[in-house]
């Protein structure tokens, strides 16, 4: 079937339990290609400086996106898979900010000061672990060293248990206009089982305060598959969240991998919902979100049709990066703080993950990158194909062929062969023009993307990834 790739209605999604059951395996989330586990220690501070030199030498530079990782949390959520530091010692953030400030100064000195910053994101951890004075200080350090575009998207991850109206007002005053709020599930039984007791009223008050302060796009994070979760309980959570009308909703699947994430060892296996229940919760969530008018953006993300993400997807401008989906395809990413991953031209680099190592490296006047990757021409080609699948659910053979100087069907003959069973099962339509992921294949889009992942195909090291659903 020759489906024109511009005519695939990307926001649509349909749930097919049989397909999900058949293809529910292990797979990367493709926030980058190659994935971070392919980074090597052959790429360190010297290679990052070289990438920054090439950026400066390359004429007018790409705009910038900035990411700051703020790792502190004062309690631990048992499902957590983030790189965080659990502590009640509020003084630890002051020392951390001192080092992040030094990293900001060093990296800022390596880029053209006039490059506009189009995006800023603070993630964690819990960014609002910082005191009001520290939040202001960090914002000032960034604004002192970089030229923010007037319409820059500035977003922050919020734990509503740590934020009141005054903090929300402060966040608006220091330039934030987008907010991502962790909810997971309002069911008190589930909250007890994951050690995250968070009242509905305090959560909704944060969302209201953000609207009153003019935040343009609010995102709520939900997780299905948590211990003690029930269809009825999660249904009630969905109703309350939908009633609050956030522009975006992220619906993550809980992956229980306690050998990788220590806090998960405190979750009782017997309390996890059975696979059938977990699937039923997912189906319910998709039904409710789509009935409420949310468009499916891809990989866990839904957005109201008038939200920038949905608009960008319809125009083919959506991009996927380490923070999920974004409307800015063309930015270089400077990342600060422990474990943060940056992207400069054809390179990725990741900072050291432990505080002591990070501090020691900065004390030695060296950048804290410990591993990274320089993409080959083949990597960049595959990155474009995987991006197209993840963001538009479609690959246009002619467009990719032209951009990379290849004949798609010859270059990817093996991959197109490997797509055949997926096409027979109805996940994709493959024509002479391109690949279109069908509405019922979209939930499994990373299964399709994995076909184009050269390293995965070569090594079949799938055991380390979270489940597709
Ligand atoms: S889920 Fe978020 S708030 Fe909870 S421990 Fe992990 S990083 Fe901290």
Notes on the protein architecture:
By secondary structure, the chain is α/β, with parallel strands linked by helices. The chain has two domains: 5-28 and 376-459, Arc Repressor Mutant, subunit A (Orthogonal Bundle), CATH 1.10.10.920; 37-335, pyruvate-formate lyase- activating enzyme (Alpha-Beta Horseshoe). The protein is built from 17 helices and 19 strands. It has helices at 17-23, 45-57, 92-108, 132-145, 165-173, 188-193, 200-212, 231-244, 275-291, 308-315, 355-363, 377-392, 397-404, 408-411, 413-424, 445-450, 454-459; strands spanning 64-70, 72-73, 85-86, 116-124, 147-158, 178-184, 217-224, 248-253, 295-298, 301-303, 319-321, 324-326, 332-336, 341-344, 347-351, 369-374, 394-396, 428-430, 434-437. A nine-stranded mixed beta sheet has the order 9-10-8-7-6-5-4-1-13, sandwiched between helices. The chain has a three-stranded antiparallel beta sheet with strand order 14-15-16. A three-stranded antiparallel beta sheet has the order 17-19-18. A hairpin with a 2-residue loop joins strand 14 and strand 15. Helix 3 packs parallel to helix 4 (132-145) and helix 8 runs parallel beside helix 9. It is globular, with a radius of gyration of 22 Å. The relative contact order is 0.18. The model has no long low-confidence stretch (mean pLDDT 93).
What are the main properties of this structure?
469 residues; alpha/beta; Arc Repressor Mutant, subunit A; 2 domains; three-stranded antiparallel beta sheet; globular; binds iron/sulfur cluster
